[in-house]
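Provenance and format

Records in this collection were gathered into a single text stream. Each protein contributes a sequence line and a token line. The two records reproduced below are adjacent in the stream.
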Amino acid sequence: MKTVLKKSLVILVLLPLFGLSQNQEQSERTVDSLYREDQLYFGVTYNLISSKPEGLSQTGFSSGFHFGFIRDFPLNTKRNFAIGLGLGFSTNSINQNLQVQEDDAGGYNYELISTDQFTKNKYTLNLIELPLEFRWRSSTYDTYKFWRVYAGFKVGYVIRSVVKYEGDPKDFKLKQIEDFNDFEYGLTLSAGYDKFNVHIYYGLNTVFDGNSSLDGQQIDMSTVKIGLMLYIL
């Protein structure tokens, strides 16, 4: 009889603990199932000029560095379709043979020069960016490696522009060039597996505004960026 009573007491003591464990496990499942993905990004790109004026050529390696935060908003219960809206920063340089010089009136003159004339001729743009992404991924709340395809749109505001020239007849640097467009916007695509992904940006507007011209023609060149994007958290 005592043995039966002891067993009954043990069961009575353990039952609440078992129930609490079940509730905690269920709570953890509920929390884990509300996961979000890929909210921090870091990228490196090779920058290309499209719609180049005749005679313009790129020299050296033109690079871009990108980082920021994207808030993930899942659209379905599986949470593999989502919209991402974020805020980021990027710095982009283009090495080429289009020389930009400031005249006495505060305007700018443009001239294509020989690559033998200089060792460095580039412009650099720093931007605050707002990326918008439409996201598909093969993830679940307990998997950390998955396929993804993110297509979207990005708009950037140019906060700093610099032209740097090193060559004949003398070196110079220009800052905050007014002829650069204040905004840069274009289409984006990131696709890959796990953390590293191929990234493409296709610019929809021109680098320079309507005030810039070369040999009487407006400079309508835009930017294409191709590289790798790393997503975490």
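Adjacent record:
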Amino acid sequence: MSERRIKLLKVPPAEPESWPMPLEEALRWVSPHEDKAADHVAIFLSQHAYLCCTDHAASDLDHEVGGGLIGQVRRGEQDGRLYIVIEDAIQARHTKFGPTHLTFTQDSLVQLNNDLEERFPGKQMVGWYHTHPRMDVFMSSYDTWLHRNFFNQPWHVALVIEPYAERGGFFCWRPGGQLDPRRYVGFYELADISYKTVVDWDNLDPEVDE
């Protein structure tokens, strides 16, 4: 097993470039916990990446599945706020899974990093996703451990999907290295496929300008 490969997720990337936030191309989806999880990284999720994750989630309603979130890390050109653009997803293989757990093995981490290098040159692993079929949108103690040990940069996020009830939400680092396993946030939907929304999670509400 290549130790160098296993540690790729933990290598501190370079300082994010300054870039305008793509707000004009996005629809914001808000969670009930939004005001209690302030100062987190802004999340822009492409429709393509959303569908990749939800299609994978719907492929097995009896067991947990998951993978990596691929994209870019940026800072807002005007306010310097950290944000990520999630462009694609990689399904994790070689996992240990069941109805209430998903474990990324060393082989899983090697596969995710190999796929990242081969299929998405110049991109980063900005987080990970997994499902909680017939449960709820939260992070278990193991989920939290995995996030702290392998996704500990301030822009790393965890997406939890409840495919049976069609719900989902992101968990983000907050100031001081805090991670609340119950309070998830929404995201900005990037219209790269259709001008109409493709999001069908009923626990998030669209933010419409009045």
